[in-house]
Amino acid sequence: MDISLLEKNLHIELTKKTKENFQTFVKLFNIYNTHTNLISKKDVQNLFEKHIYDSLALSLFLDKCENKQLKLLDIGTGGGFPSLPLAMAYEDLQIYPLDSIAKKIGFIELVQKELRLKNIYPLCKRVEELPSEMKCSFDIAVSRAVASLNILLEYAIPYVKTGGYFVAYKSVNADNEIENAKNALKILNANVVNRIKYELPLAENFTRELIVIQKQKDTNLIYPRTAAMIKKNPL
Length: 235
Prior knowledge:
Radius of gyration: 17 Å
CATH topology: Rossmann fold
Largest sheet: 7 strands, mixed
Helix content: 25-40%
Number of helices: 10
Distance between the termini: 41 Å
CATH class: Alpha Beta
Strand order of the largest sheet: 3-2-1-4-5-7-6
Oligomer: single chain
Shape: globular
Strand content: 15-25%
Order of helices and strands: HHHHEHEHEEHEHHEEH
CATH architecture: 3-Layer(aba) Sandwich
């Protein structure tokens, strides 16, 4: 794990303590992943490149934000990506990792305790089950490897403040996903305002992209609908 790449390529300043935390996190992850499938076994050897580094690519967006004291919702966090790397690297962020699988949230709570992370608030729920008072309460929502963009928009945009952002981690099919999400963007009063491309530090060419979407106006309170409705009739 070459942590120096985070500083060199993503311009993230890491303290000695934070670097130690990353090393401890990797050890905890490898132990937990032997009995709970946080990521696939074949991906474990690329844990840093495909998951930690990829998670922290959000810095390419955060660098443009004057205020770093932001409230962030991570939809479908799984094994804690991007929440845990972000929580270690950005102490000013208030991060809410959300997942419906208790064992995965259990891992996040373990890391939270072991590393004494004070800026992370795990939630074991489906996103459409979040209380209504959480709508319009987050500065940023993010999601990584969860669903197509049109579906993610319905899950994320209602919980973002007007003027706030949803940042979707995507790869080679980003153009098609944006095209297929035009109706969802219109209905939810949101626009794509930036696309940030970056490369993962792997031997093969591995291009990724952050699709930055801003909520322009309030979203109808009927959203998000139930998962069954979204699946049957996506926006």
